[in-house]
């Protein structure tokens, strides 16, 4: 059985922070692939391409803090979907930070994939996600078994 596994963080920042926001749905590129056995995940496109037909497990975490650069009434929620070939599989979302100052969500799914199927994370239009040196936004996946 082939060995396929990856884990990546949204950025490789050592200092500072960055908010992502887009006027349209946006594929999130988890550029810091600290594990990429089999090279099925691309840190350049954010897309995992199944090299074999099989059952795969994917998980992701989404972290979003209060944005101190804008007022409370300008805070934006977060929503990220796990996508398979352009179709939403599971979504995690949270309200804009208000009473609390940090929100963390997680999602996961087992997916039967055909060779060439693509899986990625999509930030919803007009929503935000955040990254910093703590690397709290992660995307991981691995082959459980071939079918």
UniProtKB/TrEMBL annotation:
Keywords for the protein's UniProt record, in alphabetical order: Secreted, Signal
Primary localization class, coarse: secreted
Secreted recorded as keyword: yes
Pfam families named in the record: C1q
Ranges that cross the membrane: none
Compartments (UniProt record): Secreted
The keyword Secreted is assigned to this record: yes
GO cellular component: extracellular region
Gene3D superfamilies: 2.60.120.40
SUPFAM superfamilies, per the entry: TNF-like (SSF49842)
Alphabetical list of PANTHER family matching this protein: CEREBELLIN 13-RELATED, CEREBELLIN-RELATED
Protein name: Cerebellin 9
Source organism: Astyanax mexicanus (Blind cave fish)
Organismal lineage: Eukaryota, Metazoa, Chordata, Craniata, Vertebrata
